[in-house]
Prior knowledge:
This protein has about 270 residues and is of the alpha+beta class. About 40% of the residues lie in helices and about 15% in strands. The chain has helices at about 1-10, 25-30, 75-105, 110, 115-120, 165-175, 180-195, 205-225; strands spanning about 140-150, 160-165, 235-245, 260-265, 270. Strands 1, 2, 3, 4 and 5 form a five-stranded antiparallel β-sheet that branches. β1 (about 140-150) and β2 (about 160-165) form a beta hairpin. The longest helix is centred in the first third of the chain and has 29 residues, at about 75-105. The model is unreliable at about 1-15 and about 25-30 (pLDDT under 50).
Amino acid sequence: MESNEREPAEAAAAPAGPPIDPPVVAAAAAPVPSARPPADLPVAPPVEPPAEAAVEPPVDRAAPPRAPGIAGLSAPYRVVTALALAAVGLAACGHLALVFLHVAPSNTVSKQHAQTVDDWIYPEFEQNWKLFAPNPLQQNIAVEVRAEVRSTLGGEPVPVGWRDLSAEDGAAIRHSLLPSHTRQNELRRAWDFFTGSHDEDNKPIGERGELSEQYLRRIALNRLTEDGSVRGEIIRIQLRSATRSVAAPPWSDEKTDTQTYYRELPWWTL
């Protein structure tokens, strides 16, 4: 009896709605997509992005910096300043030129403008010194030599003409990149040594006079024999100086005596 009564009760508990298909069945029932690709759709032209508006740089409202120096002035002030500087420069150059002529040794320019130089220098700018000491030479002094030569034993001495030693020294150093110090100074210094230690009658003053005479004699004798131009026995030699003042420039009114003056020394027996 208990088993029969339970069966209707279990049947009554069953759901009355239609049965629900499982998920597998539902997926199988879905339509299968076709393997043929769809037709190509029309492609729309690319849309260009709108052009960006030009960005203007920020405007600096501050005033521009002022240029340094004269360039920062206005045009009229620049003209005035340039004229003032030019006037100061010319005045400084003129002052230096007049002071130079005052302290320089006496020359053609200083003699021609002596009054102008003195009016400017005295009394405010007076100078008590000179630019050069001693004064530069304004004369050309050439030293010449001649000799008496005996060509044969027991023969009479034959005089040889004057030979300009200073001109030979000048030709040896002219246009030379490395001129000889001996050619430049030996003969000139020897002649200055001689004239400074002898009186107007060519007599030596003390031992220095005798030494200068021997020194000058050896130089002249060496010049006569070093090149072989004098053949034979040199019996005696004589030297002289040829002095001529440098002519004034063409634009000067100064008158210069350009005549050549000679100072002959006595014959020196060897």
